[in-house]
Amino acid sequence: xxxxxxxxxxxxxxxxxxTIRRLRRDDAITxxxxxxxxxxxxPLLADFVAGRIEEERLWRDFESTxxxxxxxxxxxxxxxxxxxxxxxxxxxxxxxxxxxxxLVATGVKPRRPEIPGIGLEGxxxxxxxxxxxxxxxxxxxxxxxxxxxxxxxxxxxxxxxRLRGLEVTMVVPDESPWFPQxxxxxxxxxxxxxxxxxxxxxxxxxPAELVGREGRVAGVKTxxxxxxxxxxxxxxxxxxxxxxxxxxxGISLADGVVVNARLQSTDExxxxxxxxxxxxxxxxxxxxxxxxxxxxxxxxxAGRSMAGEEAVAATGDESEAQALYGMSLLAxxx
Length: 334
Prior knowledge:
This protein is α/β, with parallel strands linked by helices. 24% of the residues lie in helices and 27% in strands. The radius of gyration is 20 Å and the shape is elongated.
């Protein structure tokens, strides 16, 4: 019997666990999820904030599936270290787990800038269920919002807040609210659509200070000299792979966990999938590709690799893998 440990609570992690069980009926599988309420449908967070769906629609009933299939789930636990020689990982409650195969599917975490006012009430990220719950509650009384950042999370948060009737400004450190200049045409289309929907897009600017009033955020001052009113400030800026527990382990890390086409790291017993995996082929490291569909596909490929199959992760256009969950981004406004 082989001991499989999966660290992560998103679609890459749960898909991998289910794939391993389908292929290896008698192996032990333990899934460690940092959030107390994991296994939700992240692509629907914006629609939840926008008031288009009820909270119940966010949940994927993975836990019932796991129980029925003999997958042990540890919720609210975070990996804090790894002993490669002893093949164990340490958790934040002081316990350890032994593994023969380990999957890292911990995703990414946003990093907010260290500026005055960052700790005020009304300031949030937009990468987790708790962020969406806060934003949805604040929308009940808010009238104005500033979203700082770019990319899918920033555009989706902007869309959600605008659909709730708030006056929304998006402050973008680059020229476009979308991804790199390589995709300039798509960025221009998205910016035009956002402006048509009543969003003010401010390019080539950054927040310098968040202004508060009685402990709550009230506005944003930018490095360009703007002063923007804001009852809500959402950050969708730099994201970093959540790999702290691997630092110093000897496993190759770059923008994420460096893996081959089989999603196997420089330690043959350790795999990575989803937003945390950076594939290296023929000596060249590909940019990390974010997105729900990519994470699901990589979770399945990693599960098959861990189960002993010759599985290879698909690679493609990182821009298109983002999005869009099979739907035009522009259509999501309607």
